[in-house]
Amino acid sequence: MKPMPPTPSTRPIAPTRFIMVGGFLGAGKTTALLSLARRFGAEGQRVGLITNDQASDLVDSAALRARGLRVEEIAGGCFCCKFEDLARAAERLRAEGAQPGAGQKRDAGADGRDAADSGDAEWPQVLLGEPVGSCTDLVATVVNPLKRLYGMEFHVAPYTVLADPIRAEQIFLKPGFGGFSSKVAYIYRKQLEEADAILLNKVDSIDPGRAGAILEALAAEFPGRRLLSVSAKTGEGLDAWIDLLGEQGPFGRNIVEVDYDTYAEGEAELGWVNACVVIEGKSPFSGDDLVLDLLDRLGAAFAAARVEPAHLKVLFADGDGTASASLVRSHTPSALSMAIGRDSLSGTMTVNARVHVEPALVRRTVEKALAASARERGLAIRLETIAHLKPARPIPTHRDRQPVP
After folding, report:
1. What residues does 380 pair with on adjacent strands?
2. Which of 247, 259, 331, 372 is most exposed, with minimal Cβ within 10 Å?
3. Cβ atoms 50, 160 nearer than 8 A
4. Which of 61, 30, 50 is nearest to 276 (CA)?
């Protein structure tokens, strides 16, 4: 692909820092990116985000937009297979910022100025990318092609991959593969193998001794990788991560050997469902409770079927507020990450389910849980869109076999 023409602008655009954060489904990438966006914004930097999924109606995109962030969404395949879409999305964000008066409104900083409206910074200065959680080989297919084709437009930060501590513990310290097959676990391992830095996320959820044992196992499995402990939820370890992202050096050199047959078969074992549902009530109802109830029903149904959810996400929006929650493993409680805190009369619910089972079963389970939850509350539901699928075999647009400086 030829480099895109310069963005029309009244002034030159400085290179945008591109930070891609990988990790398996449920590793906490969206919360981590939100933490980064808030920190960079508090420092007066403007931030854009690019989310990615195999289908449209993505909870992550809606949740990030609900927090006032500028988000581009790429659906229908991973960044590696939709590289041109990724480049266009990044250019749209840069072009938007190049126009006079463009900017992302935010609270004034400590000096009382609103950095989004000040004329001394381009928008965005930082671009955050969240690839599909079941994809790997991203250094060869995304990081290095970006450097090679768009080195003048983007400064690519060290590639970091997040790991959920419980999932990592199940895969590296216990027998079996954490409820998944060996082929799905193969993808999990390859994601960590290509990282410049591995971030053990959610360390607030386990005791220090267990976290230490997991870090030791990761160090043994992936020598030479930087290892950090972080909690995107509490901010623990965030400063060290941000310092790492600002480093320059020989990053993006872990180009791994990937068996694309095993990779494709592993992805195809995951059932994917994205649904968007309109909900109306005859009397006010709690969107917060509805989100949690639906997640509990889904979690219980998949546990009863003895299949492992990789990630379940639900979001409800009524036009004035948003409630969202997620469940990332069997037999774990769900909790709201966003809450409305009042009753609603109507709204739209978005459901994303990634489960280690046939997608048709995931769809039936989602539809059954939606109907039961609505019936119990006397709500009328109308299914606007629903897609159930297995990820297609990855066919990268580019694959650089040698590191790009």
Report:
1. 280
2. 331
3. no
4. 61
Strands of 4-110 (E only): list them.
16-23, 47-53, 70-75
Q: Which residue has the tokens 């047959």?
A: 261
Amino acid at 369: A
Cβ within 8 Å of residue 142, ≥6 positions away = 20, 79, 80, 83, 86, 131
Judge whether 60 and 137 are in contact, CB under 8 Å. no
> What whole-number distance in Å separates Cα of residue 138 and Cα of residue 144?
9
Q: pTM here?
A: 0.90
Residue with tokens 């036009």: 319
CA distance 114 to 403: 39
Alpha helices in 144-181 (DSSP H): 144-150, 165-172
Instruction: Report residue 372: phi and psi, to 5°.
Output: -65, -45
Q: For the chain, which ranges sit under pLDDT 70? A: 1-13, 97-123
**Nearest of 226, 191, 225, 156 to residue 403 by alpha carbon:** 156
266 to 150, 183, 301, 322, 341: CA distances (angstroms): 32, 5, 23, 34, 40
Cα 341–Cα 347–Cα 348 angle in degrees, nearest 5: 115
Question: Residue 123's pLDDT is what?
Answer: 61
Count of Cβ atoms closer than 10 Å to residue 327 Cβ: 23
Answer for the pair 182, 220: CB distance below 8 angstroms, yes or no.
no
Beta strands in 157-209 (DSSP E): 160-163, 197-200
Whole-number Å distance between alpha carbons of 368 and 385:
15
**pLDDT tens, residue by residue, 176-219:** 888 899 999 999 999 999 999 999 999 999 999 999 999 999 99
